[in-house]
């Protein structure tokens, strides 16, 4: 077995172990049904990323169209050093055909990204392997994502206090190159049925260079926190 294959198998095994351990905790509660979105639904978040120099911005997610054929969400991010706008396309609640998976970069997923698998129930797990239709990941791998659903936790945000279901996400991107290994991420996402969206997210990503260029250590590429500051439902 070559070293690259051995590394991949070991990393996937560790990821699944972490997801399994992280999925416990919280309190039992009812399964969260799929939300019903309408044009005009709106969620505003406060986000920050970085270490010594923190980058901050405000991110607004607004449903611009919703029908049995699909859901369109406009995402606007504005801050001292950020002014971006993108569009997410969903085939249904929680199922993303085109959108972001790590940062604000839009990807087109095949198969569609299952961000939330409704109804959300504690103890549920799912794993996906996807590719970005706009990115050729050969000769390496596509996107791998594993989710473990925990119990309910009381989460306090600037928008208020919520009973939220915790999702623990292990993610591997499709950005491996000849000089670096792919980006690995661990996310904690708290989804509140009362607002039909996440109310807090904790995001950490890193990668390592091949050949020991950085001494075999991790290079952090994301260290972000996102919290809900307001929401409006039609």
Characterize the structure shown.
The protein is 9% helix and 53% strand. It is built from one helix and twelve strands. It has one helix spanning 3-22, and strands spanning 42-49, 55-67, 70-79, 82-92, 95-99, 107-114, 125-132, 143-157, 160-172, 184-192, 197-207, 219-232. By secondary structure, the protein is mainly β. The termini are far apart. The protein is globular and about 55 Å long. β1 (42-49) and β2 (55-67) form a beta hairpin. The chain has a single domain (3-232), classed as Beta Barrel (YmcC-like fold). Strands 1-2-3-4-5-6-7-8-9-10-11-12 form a twelve-stranded antiparallel β-barrel.
**In CATH, what is the class?**
Mainly Beta
Indicate how many domains the architecture comprises: 1
- Roughly what percent helix? under 10%
Low-confidence segments, given as residue ranges, are 1-24
- Our estimate of the beta-strand percent is over 45%
Number of strands: 12
Order of helices and strands: HEEEEEEEEEEEE
| Rg, alpha carbons | 18 Å
- Provide the CATH architecture: Beta Barrel
CATH topology: YmcC-like fold
**Secondary structure category:** mainly beta
For the biggest sheet, the summary is: 12 strands, antiparallel, barrel
Number of helices: 1
Question: What average pLDDT do the residues reach?
Answer: 89
Shape: globular
């Amino acid at each position: 077995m070559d070293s690259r294959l051995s590394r991949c198998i070991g990393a996937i095994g560790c990821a699944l172990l972490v997801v399994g351990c992280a999925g416990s905790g919280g309190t039992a509660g009812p399964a969260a049904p799929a939300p019903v979105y309408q044009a005009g639904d709106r969620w505003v978040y406060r986000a920050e990323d970085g270490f010594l120099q923190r980058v901050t911005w405000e991110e607004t997610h607004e449903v611009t169209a919703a029908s049995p054929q699909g859901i369109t969400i406009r995402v606007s991010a504005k801050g001292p050093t950020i002014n971006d706008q993108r569009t997410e396309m969903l085939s249904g609640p929680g199922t993303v055909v085109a959108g972001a998976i790590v940062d604000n970069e839009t990807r087109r997923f095949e198969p569609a990204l299952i961000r939330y698998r409704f109804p959300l129930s504690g103890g549920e797990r799912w794993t996906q392997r996807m590719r970005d239709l706009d990115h050729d990941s050969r000769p390496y791998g596509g996107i791998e994502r594993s989710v473990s659903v925990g119990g309910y936790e009381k989460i306090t945000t600037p928008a208020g206090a919520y009973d939220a279901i915790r999702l623990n996400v292990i993610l591997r991107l499709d950005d491996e190159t000849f000089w670096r290994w792919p980006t690995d991420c661990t996310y904690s996402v708290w989804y509140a049925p009362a607002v039909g969206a996440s109310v807090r997210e904790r995001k950490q990503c890193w990668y390592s260079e091949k050949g020991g260029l950085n001494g075999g250590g991790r290079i952090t590429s994301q260290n972000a926190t996102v919290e809900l500051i307001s929401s409006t439902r039609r």
